[in-house]
Design brief:
CATH superfamily: Response regulator
Number of helices: 5
Number of domains: 1
Structural class: alpha/beta
CATH architecture: 3-Layer(aba) Sandwich
Distance between the termini: 12 Å
Shape: globular
Helix content: 25-40%
Strand content: 5-15%
Length: 149
């Protein structure tokens, strides 16, 4: 079993293929006063490699194991739905909290991801101010209030 509490810092793994979205999230977390280390991957294949500590992601100092994942749905190679299914059916990974952060408002995406075991589904804010507020709320709830495995 993977030890999620082994990380000295509370790291957040963000899986999003859009470079602008990744940069805005990074800036929004910084502006909201985040002390967590952020790690980024660009698609579902990289996400699974990261979680399984494969290739360059074997370096625990550079890529600390995450306490939580922010996952976009629409990515190349392996999309967020496929990655979520793989995480939630893996005995060692299934307890890792996953929050969908996407532009999709499709009811089928919302229902299907909850059926797969997602912990929360959030529509990406359309303004930067909204994104900063999201990062504050996300941190407060998921990293300060909630008890994570």
């Amino acid at each position: 079993m993977i030890n999620f509490n082994g990380a000295e810092k509370k790291s957040i793994l963000i899986a999003d293929d859009d470079a602008d979205d990744r940069e805005m999230l990074k800036t929004a977390f910084e502006e909201s006063g985040s002390k967590q280390q952020l790690c980024f991957v660009e698609n579902g294949e990289e996400l699974i490699q990261f979680l399984r500590r494969k290739g360059k992601y074997a370096d625990d100092l550079k890529y600390p194991y995450p306490r939580i994942i922010l996952l976009d749905l629409n990515m190349p190679k392996k999309d967020g739905r496929e990655a979520l299914r793989e995480i939630k059916t893996d005995k060692q990974l299934k307890t890792l909290p996953v929050v969908i952060l996407t532009t999709s408002t499709e009811e089928t995406d919302i229902v299907n991801t909850y059926e797969l075991g997602v912990n929360s589904y959030v529509i990406k804010p359309v303004t930067y101010k909204g994104l900063v507020e999201f990062t504050r709320t996300f941190q407060r709830y998921w990293l300060d209030i909630s008890e994570l495995p």
